[in-house]
Amino acid sequence: MATEYFNEMYEAGAVRAPYARLEDWTRAMPAEFRQMKQAEAEALFRRIGITFAVYGEGGDPDRLIPFDMFPRVFTQSEWRRLERGVKQRARALNAFLLDVYGRGEIIRAGRIPARLVYQNEAYERAAAGFIPPRGVYSHIVGVDLVRTGPDDFFVLEDNCRTPSGVSYMLENREIMMRMFPALFRENRIEPVDGYPDLLRRTLASVAPAKCGGEPTVVILTPGHFNSAYYEHSFLADLMGVELVEGADLFVEGGFVWMRTTEGPKRVDVIYRRIDDAFLDPLCFRPESMLGVPGLMDVYRSGGVTICSAPGSGVADDKAIYTYVPEMIRFYLGEEPVLQNVPTWQCGRTDDLKYVVENLCDLVVKEVHGSGGYGMLVGPRSTSEQIEGFRARLLADPGNYIAQPTLALSTTPTFVNEGIAPRHVDLRPYCLVGERVELVPGGLTRVALTEGSLVVNSSQGGGVKDTWVLAE
């Protein structure tokens, strides 16, 4: 029997209120005009340089991300609930990081197994015992949300290290406003263009105590071969800060300095977009050419703030994810506003038995996987794929979690034949510093292949503008 999916525009044959004005917009749009606008959007993306990189698959690695012109719409009341839940989750995740790099009270209380934290490859012992400014470890938290009904939202995963994609959120809005200005005159839509200023203010608010005067903030990139390099340069430009590589920085006198044409300039806050392992060759991988030798010594002595903090990845590990509701209760004394997707930990004997017996019905993911890779979508896989994955699962059960195949909501999407429902998710970006804040919106990713539930751009997914209607 076919699965029923919640259509965010239509319910019981009628147009839902948030989309009321978009129905006339689409009905009045001839196919030729739509195709012209789609070509215009692609030309804008290409001219601006909005690409993402996929290596190892042959061909041009820099690809244009597919953009769907049909916006996704949330009411103000829907957004308020999501905002409250995302902020709650970001506070709890940061409290967890502060705890496990300190006394480990949640582990002492038996709420989370010690092995999942201290034996986790994302746990950095070099960060233990040091409290970063304001006790904040993860300064940009991307929470991936899925919807299964009018009032049913679930957290699919947390991204506490360096969640990407915010440049698409901003550029999707910019291009929609340029192509369809009348839509924005007729609909009161909350703005998202304040994000760069909000990000800069958040980063400045966590400058170290040794910082005197206005903090100097930089974005540290691995370089132009990185898949998200466009976003690094885009954000640096909008924030009015320097984009630097490891070779542009050096350590001296207990501080980090940036090489400039006017001589060395002290750096107070580094928004790093490189992995922990490459940050400092004296502390992590000695062969790394991307980081700054001695950076961790300066960090631990309070001479510079690294955002997000080294070791913050232990909070977004998929095995740790299952305990986030417990973190909320333990640290905040609250009930979770947003629920997790039910999850089986394959490292547990009973969970593994259930997963192995029901692979054809489940989604199985690597604990440290990302980008839609290293996973099995049972209902969309062949028997050969399932058997091959079963062998990998049994060889290393602790490396996997499993979840039910959710009936992800759909939104109207422009396809070659006209308009059709496609599955979507949502990634809002929560900024944590002196305050915990979100802009009203996020990145909606859409699975453009009919029937697909995988929205990642590296797996054929696209993006669309996300509207929050103003009251």
UniProtKB/TrEMBL annotation:
<dbReference type="InterPro" id="IPR051680">
    <property type="entry name" value="ATP-dep_Glu-Cys_Ligase-2"/>
</dbReference>
<dbReference type="Pfam" id="PF14403">
    <property type="entry name" value="CP_ATPgrasp_2"/>
</dbReference>
<dbReference type="InterPro" id="IPR025841">
    <property type="entry name" value="CP_ATPgrasp_2"/>
</dbReference>
<dbReference type="InterPro" id="IPR016450">
    <property type="entry name" value="UCP005522"/>
</dbReference>
<feature type="domain" description="Circularly permuted ATP-grasp type 2">
    <location>
        <begin position="71"/>
        <end position="447"/>
    </location>
</feature>
<protein>
    <recommendedName>
        <fullName>Circularly permuted ATP-grasp type 2 domain-containing protein</fullName>
    </recommendedName>
</protein>
